[in-house]
Amino acid sequence: MPGEALRNNDKADGGYFEDLPKLLFILFAVAMFIFSTVTAYTARGQFNERVAMLDELNDFSDEILTWQNITPEREGILDAASLSRITLEDFEFRFSPEVKRFEYRIQIYDRSLYVAREGETRLDHGPYSTQDVPEGVEVYTKTVPVVIKDQGDNYRASHLIISIWR
């Protein structure tokens, strides 16, 4: 019977299609390798950028707390008279965004109880911002407890809030 020879013949030639499953498997494995390599490289770059920005934020906050224009007496004790005279241009002259390679916003909030007295006002200052925060940019923020010394030699508990972004 002619059909019997075809059913029992295992010497058939598959041509191109014989290696197709192997080729597809190899292409899939190479694509997975390339995808995982690109993903790992991107994640590593983002991690390094975050670490660098957090280091920049910590260094920048230390620079502000030791800047003689606002802390003439001691580090971390801000002078109210100096703060009332300071402008954004003073910050930009001392902490230039071009030199720092990031933009920033600085805010000082008075959180003391002296405002409970009649006639006292909060010694809030800022925000001193080099530019508005663009949409979709990751902003790194740090809140530092500081003290503001007012004209009556009162020490007011305050927060220095620093935000940076690229």
Topology:
Elements: H1 2-8, H2 20-65, E1 77-79, H3 80-85, H4 88-94, H5 97-100, E2 103-110, E3 125-129, E4 140-149, E5 155-165
Parallel strand pairs: 1-4
Antiparallel strand pairs: 2-3, 2-5, 4-5
What does this protein structure show overall?
It is built from five helices and five strands, in the order ααβαααββββ. It is α+β, with helices and mostly antiparallel strands and 166 residues long. A five-stranded mixed β-sheet has the order 1-4-5-2-3. The protein is rod-shaped, with a radius of gyration of 32 Å. It starts with a helix and ends with a strand.
Which properties best describe this structure?
single chain; 166 residues; alpha+beta; five-stranded mixed sheet; 5 strands
Summarize the model shown.
By secondary structure, this protein is an alpha+beta fold.
Q: Runs with pLDDT <50, length 5+? A: none
State the helicity in percent bands: 40-55%
| Strand segment count | 5
Strand order within the widest beta sheet: 1-4-5-2-3
User: What percentage of amino acids are in beta strands?
Assistant: 15-25%
| Distinct helical segment count | 5
- Please give the largest β-sheet: 5 strands, mixed
C-alpha end-to-end distance = 81 Å
Shape: rod-shaped
Radius of gyration: 32 Å
Q: Output the helix-strand order.
A: HHEHHHEEEE
Mean pLDDT: 85
